[in-house]
Amino acid sequence: MNIFRLAGDMTHLASVLVLLLKIHTIKSCAGVSLKTQELYALVFATRYLDIFTDFISLYNTVMKLIFLGSSFSIVWYIRRHKIVRRSYDKDQDTFRHYFLVLPCLLLALVIHEKFTFREVMWAFSLYLEAVAILPQLVLLQRTRNIDNLTGQYVFLLGAYRALYILNWIYRYFTEPHFVHWITWIAGLVQTLLYADFFYYYFESWKNNVKLQLPA
Amino acid sequence: IEPTSEKDEL
């Protein structure tokens, strides 16, 4: 474990907890894309298949349980909670996320580390995580209102992935055989997707104006 | 250094 990875995990934890707390306290999910949350729940479900078979560390297991629990809770709140679900604008959150799932699944069937169910699911979860934010970014551009919690959520998610890239660089130089091309490329693509959001986020923060994404 | 098992990242 290195400082970049710990910071990345804490930032990732903060992003899901910020969102869960927002939805739980103000009983509203305005501005939140259910599609992105469903994709993230799928990412964790396919990524953490080994949670009960491979014990790596207490930290690893606890964090996996938190990520699984929080992502499925957020989906439950938006779909089932009698008050929260009313604030979900489904006619704006129309990104056809199946168009993301299928290509990621096909890609995972072609490019993976080993052709086993676990490895294909693991590669699928990495490809899906790279694009899972798209419905949320599209929704932000459509509704143009970025309330600061949703903006923070996207910002923290981007920061977590950027910190992970530093972690991979650090591990590459400190651990002789640490090479995971699939993880690195998927992580880089994901971070680049956030790059333009970061630009507008910092611009609005610097000029102290409300964050406006170009249509 | 901890043994870098295959998938030790989240």
From TrEMBL, chain A:
The chain crosses the membrane at residues 55-78, 98-115, 121-140, 152-170, 182-202. GO terms for molecular function: ER retention sequence binding. Keywords: Endoplasmic reticulum, ER-Golgi transport, Membrane, Protein transport, Receptor, Transmembrane, Transmembrane helix, Transport. It is found in: Endoplasmic reticulum membrane. GO terms for cellular component: endoplasmic reticulum membrane. Pfam families: ER_lumen_recept. Signal peptide: none annotated. InterPro entries: ER_ret_rcpt (IPR000133). It is a multi-pass membrane protein. GO terms for biological process: protein retention in ER lumen; protein transport; vesicle-mediated transport. PANTHER family: ER LUMEN PROTEIN RETAINING RECEPTOR (PTHR10585). Belongs to the ERD2 family. This is ER lumen protein-retaining receptor. It comes from Cynara cardunculus var. scolymus (Globe artichoke).
